[in-house]
Fold this protein.
Amino acid sequence: MSPLVSLPFGDRDGRALLGRHSLLLATLVFMMVALPLLEWSSGRTFRFPILFSLVLMAAVWVHRAQRWILWAAIAGGLGAVGGNAIAVAVGSPLPRMVGDLCGLALLLLTTFVILNTVTQTRRVELDTVVGGICVYLMIGLSFATVYRLLIDLDPNAFMLGDRPLSELCDDASALPSRLLYFSFVTLTTTGFGDIIPQTEIAQMVTAGEALTGQLYVAIFVARLMGLHIEAGRLRTDRGDRGHRSGRGDVPDDDARSGS
């Protein structure tokens, strides 16, 4: 009997098979863990651009099997990394906005490709679950990028207490770090209420993220459960046929032709 979830570390022939989404999940988790821990480091100003670049490189790696998508992902990744590097060097928001748009395009492309893979699969493997988790985390990262673009357009888009959030961040990585926190608080509908969207577009985007988080979890879990039930039914049917065949209850082709 084959397992419902197969580990991606090796197949029956002993060949190593790391899931293609594992590296992306590792970089996403590493970014979320390292971002607050590096707040006290001497290079804390560069912590978000560096960690974000690692995530983008892992996202490019996901598309390595599809050539035209790979080139589009490389273009988006280079635009994002280059824009953020120029913004850090010259201190101008315009290159960062261009870089954020390129990074957002790459995140959305990767999210669509992985989501398509997850929904089209007929068997639940560990890499399927990993891909689904990557989609969820990239949704939160994508919305955080959108929030930073909104603040670039209107510094009063988000408030912390009675002051704009952008005024309370003392380095270039503090703002995206707080927006990432706010994004996942919204995505999971925790809603602490410390950071508040002020403009209409910021409020609608925030509401859209909360709705997206709820719908995605419900649909993804339902999909996995449906595949689980279907796989169990197929295994049961094969077992019943094998049991009847062993008892001679199922006539073979020669017996049917002789009758």
About this structure: The mean pLDDT is 83. Residues 59 and 193 are 32 Å apart (CA to CA). The first helix runs from residue 22 to 37.
